[in-house]
Amino acid sequence: MWDAVVNAYNWFMALMLTFKATDVLDIMVVSFIIYNLIKIMRETRAEQLVKGILVLLVAFFLSGIFNLKMLNSLFTSFFQFSVLAVLIVFQPELRSALEHIGRSKIAKYWNNLSGGRDNDEEKIKQAKLCIKCVVEAANSFQKSKTGALMVFERQTKLGDIIDTGTIINAEPSVPMIGNIFFNKAPLHDGAMVIRDGMLYAAGCILPLTKNNSSVSIDLGTRHRAALGISENSDAVIVVVSEETGTISIALNGIITRDYTRETLSSALEELLIPHVPEKSEHNSVRTGQRKVRKNEKDNK
Question: What pTM was estimated for this model as a whole?
Fold first, then answer.
């Protein structure tokens, strides 16, 4: 027993003598990657897939211990193609992780360096005009209980979503938005995609959320579609309920509800006007969530 302790101590001291500052950086980077991988996999299908792979690894290990040659040979052949299998099985999660990296602060900083700032004033002016039109239209829809689904494209391009609808590329205006979501109009059932302050496409089909267990039963298809596209992109989605007239915002897989004309305008300006600090997104979501919790407590 004492010899084992001495050997462990000697091994540890020998390891510390060769330990360098680069090793600390290496450990920190690997820990950061593992932490974020676990964070991405939690409460998704990937978590169950990882559990299944661990079961196969245990079975492979036991087949070697008990000399089950046929089973061991089968697992060996399977794990030879494990890298390709992982890429295929985890394709949605890997795509989501890469998109998340692409939306990181480093990527945004790189885009700002390469994009230039000559047209910032025009972009801000166009964005403010579009926000104003959307807010006024949403306020009108709230009163008439007209369902609407409006997607503000940001860094993640939504070309595959746009291809499912009809390109209109129109200047934003309240009458134009009203015509799109008029209940007898051919494009009213789909989503409207806003790109660079323009009403770019309408009648678009959005993917539904996969986290159905965490979605309230009060939310219909529009809200589930808004959550679905917010989980797969950095888009900001405004939803008006056809049943209640409630205005909601979906962002990063979180939906906040019960917006008024003033709070909707404020939230959209914080999220969409260029050069607003990143923390404004989280502050806007937290503010909406606190408002929802307060309303739920008042209802109880």
Answer: 0.64
Residue with tokens 């245990």: 58
Report d(CA 127, CA 22) in Å as an integer: 46
Phi-psi region of 241 (alpha: psi -120 to 50; beta: other; left: phi over 0): beta
Cβ-count burial 213-224 (b if 16+ within 10 Å, e if not) = eeeeeebeebbb
| Res 202: pLDDT | 97
Q: How far apart are CA 95 and CA 187, in angstroms?
A: 30
Q: How far is Cα 230 from Cα 252, in angstroms, rounded to an integer?
A: 5
The structure tokens listed for 205 are: 């089909």
Task: Take residue 296 and report the two structure tokens written for it.
Answer: 């739920």
**What are the strands of the beta sheet with 148-152, ordered from one edge?**
166-170, 198-204, 191-195, 148-152, 236-240, 247-251, 254-256
